[in-house]
Amino acid sequence: MTRHARNCTAGAVYTYHEKKKDAAASGYGTQSERVGKDSVKSFDCCSLTLQPCRNPVITKDGFLFDKEAILEYIITKKTEYTRKLKNYEKQLKKEDEEKKELAEAERETNLIKFMNREKNITNGAKSDASHQSSSISNLANGKHKQLPSFWIPSQLPDAKISKLQKPDPTVYCPLSSKPLKMKDLIEVKWTLVKDPDDKKSLIAKENRYMCPITHDILSNAVPCAVIRTTGHVVTMECVEKIIKKDWLHPLTGDKLKEKDIILLQRGGTGYALTNDNLEAKNARPVLQA
C-alpha cells in the first residue's frame, strides 16, 4: 500500500493532483479564469470603441453606441455593399458575354459543318484531315492560351470558380445581428451626479451618473432602462415602482407605453448569476496520462 500523501511519488497511479501539478508546470491543459472588473465594459461605454460615449445613442435592443462610431460603422458597411455589388454586376456582365461568345462559336461551328457537308457533296467524299492541321501538339491550334498554370491555384484543372452571391444591402447591428437603421437610434441623456466636493474630471469619477428621479447612482450592478420618448436613463426599480403604476413620465408627465421602456444592456457585474458568461478560457495542448 502506498501512502496517500499529496506529494507521494511512490504509487503506480498517476493521481489527479499530480496531473494538475504537472499541467501547471508544463503549460498543458485548459486554463479558466474569472473575468475581473477591469476586463468588463462599463455600462456607459460604447459597444464598439469600449470608451465612454460623448454622444450616446441606443438601439431598440438596448445596446449603447457612440454616435460617431456607429455612423462610421454604418457608412463602412454601405461602402462595402457598394463594392460587392459592383463586383457582382461585373460577374453578371462577364457571364452574359461568355454566353454570347458560346452562342457565336456554336453558330460558327454549325456554319463550318454545313460548308464542309456541301463541299463533300459537290466534290465527292474527301477527308477533312487534309484541310486541318495534323499536329497532335498541345500547343497547336491556339491551345497554348487554354493551358492551365499549375503554379497558380486558381488556374489548376480541378479549380472551381467561386461565384459571388448577390450582397445583402441591410446593415446589421454588430451585437444583436438585427437590422440597424440610423433613424431607429435614440439619443441618451445622462444625469450627472452633483457633488461639489468631487473636483475630479468626469472620466476619472467612479460615480458619474444617477437616476434623475430616485437619484440612485448608476453602475454595472444596477439594472437601468432608457425612456424612448425623452432618452432619460432611469433605474429598473424606478420603472417597476413608479412608472408602471400609471404609465406617466415622471419628468414630463407624458403618457408612456411598455415599448417606450428599453432595457439598457450592461457590460457585466462580476457575478455569474447576473450575466451570461464571465469566464475566460485559454485552450492549450492536453496532457494525457
UniProtKB/TrEMBL annotation:
Subcellular location: Cytoplasm; Nucleus
GO CC terms in record: cytoplasm; nucleus
GO molecular function: ubiquitin protein ligase activity
GO BP, sorted A to Z: protein ubiquitination
U-box domain residues: 39-113
Coiled coil region boundaries: 78-108
Stored InterPro entries: NOSIP, Ubox_domain, Znf-NOSIP, Znf_RING/FYVE/PHD
Keywords from the named record: Coiled coil, Cytoplasm, Nucleus
Family statement drawn from the similarity comment of this UniProt entry: Belongs to the NOSIP family.
Name this protein carries in UniProt: Nitric oxide synthase-interacting protein homolog
